[in-house]
Structure formats: structure tokens, C-alpha cells
């Protein structure tokens, strides 16, 4: 006869006394019914559906829980909803602190009550929430201290496995990265935020007053990235343009990986770099497939960890070479070791991008697809994710917005010969001070 079950669902990223209190109560109920305590450990995907990815992955968190004597068994809970595991286990008791009677988890709580009532199998027990302790606050405090290089480096692969779509935004300075890190909206009870940063060669060079022709050397760009990393905790994807010569690209891969960058994107063009959105208005040459595959292989052989990603950017649609050429290159680049494919378009409509995704996904369901919807900006990230894209990059918007604002304010001061009229267009000094950690 199966043992009676007391069920507890947990994220268990940072174990604290509140967790232990809940587990002790669960163990007491299990003893009374001669049953067992089963913990449903939320998977990375389940956690990422409503808040940031945990520090530790599922297997690491499971190992911690299995060492706690109060727990008899740990199983995965694949969604925020308890319903699947309740139907599977038919527990005698479900234990959760009473803090979820209000706030974001009200619907989850009601679903537990409804499922237990439908099955007629158990009771929800809600001990008083342990005051003064919050996993969310502990996580925020830990992130304020910082994140290790290896932990940041591995975040992108974990995020791709746990969440679709990922939203990345261009950051060209530590200040712009702080703005991106702290930006969020609540949509239908879910927190939506940027999952990481894009180090754009366009905005990096433009912010220095230089043309977008690979004029800024790697070390200068790494200095900016290090400044971003000092004050943030999210992963970064690096725009490596063409990657340069193979011999130089291998050194770049090692430098980026050592810094904690999660991925680099290289485009299949040769010669002096020209911005892709210019298309055939300027002379641009696409690389030979074999030569570009050799560059991908060399980069993969140069990296030290399995976490770093090399993503191949295909320019076929930009250069009007057609869908078949784009797909042939995509499959060849994946075979050469590319960890992802970025497909680009300069059309206002997303139709050719959606066509590429559909045809690529018909043969390859796993390789991540990266989209930069600068031209076709009417389609949402959610719609692109539902079509099969994994990462959506907003590639230059923070710098472009900053340029307009700075130009307007500078002009206004000169026109009025004082700054009173433009104060409403500026962030207050107090806001700036509150944004920068340690200032106040």
C-alpha cells in the first residue's frame, strides 16, 4: 500500500529558517499519519516563469534538499501550479506558509484548494509565515554583492533552457546597464524584465564618436564590459562583427570567456565592416560558407568551458541572396559547431524572418534562434517566441534614445540661456543617486 504523503513545493535556491520551519511542520504531519514528506522542487523553467532564474540549477538545489533529514523524497515540479503533482501524488496534506493568501500567488493557492476539493484527497495547511525572512530579499541582497564570473557566464544557456523568449537590450555603459537591469513591468501578474545585455559594436563605437567599422579594439570594449559587470548580474552577449581573422578570433574568444561574457555573435561577411541595415546600398561581401565554418570551428576549439556560446549571424536576407541560401548556411554553421543562429532582415515586415524560423524549425527544433527586430519593430517579442525564436535583441535603442534627449537638452539650455525650462526632461539628481548603489 502506498505511503501517505505530505507535499511541500519549494524553489530552495537559498535555504533559510523559514524553509526549515515549514519542513518541520510537514514532518510532524507525516509522523501523525505514518507517511512521508515529499518536496516538489520547482524546475528552472517553473521559477523563470514568474521571477529571475535561481543561482543554483535544479540538480544543485536537489542535492541540497536531499541532504536535509526532514525530507523523504524530492521530485520535480515543472510549473508554478501544484496541480500536476497533486493529481499524481494525491497527498493527505499540502503545506505552504500563509503569505500566499495575498499577492501574486493567490491564483496558485486557489488552484490547490480547487484540485484538493475535486480529488477529495487532502487538506491545505497554512502555517504563519516566518517574519523577517524573505527568499526574494535574500536574493536581492546577494545580487547586490555581485555575481561570479563563472556564474554569469553560464546564465545564458540556463536561461535558454528555462524561458522563451529571452529579451536582451543594448548597453554601452555601466549606467545604461543599470537602467536595463532595473527596468520591468508587471503583465498579467508576471514580472517581465530584460534577461541580459547586448554589447553592440555600433553603439560602442558611436558612443566614442567613431564609425561602425570595427574601429574600437577588443580591449577598449572589454573595459566597458568590465564596468558593466561591476554593477550588474545579468548575462551579456557580445557583438563581434565578422570576428576578424581566424587567428585573431580565437584569442578574442578566450578573452571574452575569461571576462564572463556568455556568448559572441559573428556575422558571415568579409572586408571592412558596414552596417547591415544599409544592405546593398553599399558594397558588402558575404563570406564563403567553408571559410566561415572554419572560423566557427576554430572558435569552438579555443574556448575553455562548455558554457560559452558562439552564434552565427547570417546576412543572406540582408544582401537579397534569398531564403534557400540563408537556410543552407544555417544548417552548415550548426554542423560546424555554432551554438545558435541569428537571422537578420532590413524589411519592415517580419514575414521573411517568420518564414526562415518555420523552415529552420522544421528540421532543427533545438538550436537557439536570435532575432534583432530593429526594422520590423511592430512584432512583439512574445510573438517571435511563439514562432520559435529564443532570444530577441533590442540592439541600439538606449543609445539612440539618449542621443535625442541629450541633443534636446543641450539645445534648450542655449536657447533659454538657463536650465530651468529643460529640468522636466532630465532625471532628478535624487533619482540618479538612488539608482547608483552605494551613493546614498
Automatic annotation (TrEMBL):
Q: What is this protein called?
A: phosphoenolpyruvate mutase
Kindly list the organism's lineage.
Answer: Bacteria, Pseudomonadati, Campylobacterota, Epsilonproteobacteria, Campylobacterales
Similarity annotation: Belongs to the isocitrate lyase/PEP mutase superfamily. PEP mutase family.
Any GO molecular function: phosphoenolpyruvate mutase activity
Name the Pfam families for this protein.
Answer: CTP_transf_like, PEP_mutase
Supply the EC number(s): 5.4.2.9
Query: Which keywords accompany this UniProt record?
Result: Isomerase, Nucleotidyltransferase, Pyruvate, Transferase
- Keyword Transcription (UniProt): no
Q: Which domain of life is it from?
A: Bacteria
Q: Where is the Cytidyltransferase-like domain?
A: 12-138
Give the SUPFAM superfamilies listed for this entry.
Nucleotidylyl transferase, Phosphoenolpyruvate/pyruvate domain
Q: Does the keyword Cell inner membrane apply?
A: no
Amino acid at each position: 500500500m502506498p505511503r501517505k504523503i505530505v507535499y511541500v513545493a519549494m524553489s530552495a535556491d537559498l535555504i533559510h529558517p523559514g524553509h526549515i520551519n515549514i519542513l518541520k511542520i510537514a514532518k510532524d504531519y507525516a509522523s501523525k499519519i505514518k507517511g512521508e514528506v515529499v518536496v516538489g522542487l520547482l524546475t528552472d523553467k517553473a521559477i523563470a516563469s514568474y521571477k529571475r532564474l535561481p543561482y543554483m540549477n535544479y540538480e544543485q538545489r536537489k542535492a541540497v534538499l536531499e541532504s536535509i533529514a526532514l525530507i523523504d523524497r524530492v521530485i520535480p515540479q515543472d510549473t508554478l501550479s501544484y496541480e500536476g503533482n497533486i493529481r499524481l501524488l494525491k497527498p493527505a496534506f499540502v503545506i505552504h506558509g500563509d503569505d500566499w493568501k495575498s499577492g501574486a500567488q493567490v491564483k496558485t493557492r486557489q488552484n490547490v484548494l480547487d484540485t484538493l476539493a475535486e480529488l477529495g484527497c487532502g487538506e491545505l495547511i497554512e502555517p504563519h509565515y516566518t517574519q523577517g525572512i524573505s527568499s526574494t530579499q535574500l536574493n536581492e541582497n546577494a545580487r547586490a554583492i555581485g555575481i561570479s564570473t563563472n556564474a554569469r557566464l553560464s546564465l545564458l544557456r540556463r536561461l535558454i533552457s528555462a524561458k522563451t523568449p529571452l529579451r536582451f537590450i543594448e548597453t554601452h555603459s555601466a549606467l545604461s546597464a543599470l537602467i536595463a537591469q532595473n527596468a520591468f513591468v508587471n503583465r498579467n501578474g508576471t514580472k517581465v524584465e530584460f534577461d541580459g545585455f547586448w554589447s553592440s559594436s555600433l553603439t560602442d563605437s558611436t558612443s566614442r564618436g567613431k564609425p561602425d567599422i570595427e574601429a574600437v579594439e577588443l580591449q577598449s570594449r572589454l573595459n566597458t564590459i568590465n564596468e558593466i559587470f561591476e554593477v550588474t548580474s545579468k548575462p551579456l552577449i557580445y557583438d563581434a562583427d565578422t570576428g576578424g581573422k581566424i587567428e585573431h578570433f580565437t584569442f578574442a574568444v578566450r578573452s571574452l570567456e575569461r571576462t564572463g561574457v556568455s556568448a559572441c555573435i559573428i556575422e558571415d561577411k568579409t572586408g571592412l565592416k558596414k552596417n547591415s541595415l544599409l544592405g546593398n546600398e553599399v558594397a558588402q561581401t558575404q563570406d564563403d560558407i567553408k571559410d566561415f565554418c572554419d572560423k566557427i570551428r576554430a572558435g569552438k576549439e579555443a574556448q575553455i568551458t562548455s558554457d560559452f556560446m558562439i552564434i552565427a549571424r547570417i546576412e543572406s536576407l540582408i544582401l537579397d541572396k534569398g531564403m534557400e541560401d540563408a537556410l543552407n548556411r544555417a544548417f552548415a554553421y550548426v554542423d560546424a559547431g555554432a551554438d545558435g543562429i541569428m537571422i537578420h532582415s532590413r524589411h519592415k515586415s517580419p514575414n521573411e524572418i517568420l518564414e526562415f524560423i518555420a523552415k529552420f524549425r522544421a528540421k532543427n527544433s533545438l538550436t537557439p534562434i536570435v532575432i534583432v527586430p530593429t526594422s520590423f519593430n511592430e512584432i512583439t517579442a512574445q510573438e517571435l517566441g511563439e514562432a520559435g525564436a529564443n532570444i530577441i535583441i533590442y540592439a541600439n535603442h538606449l543609445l539612440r534614445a539618449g542621443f535625442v534627449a541629450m541633443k534636446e537638452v543641450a539645445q534648450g539650455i542655449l536657447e533659454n540661456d538657463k536650465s530651468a525650462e529643460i529640468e522636466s526632461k532630465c532625471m532628478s539628481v535624487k533619482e540618479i543617486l538612488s539608482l547608483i548603489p552605494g551613493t546614498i
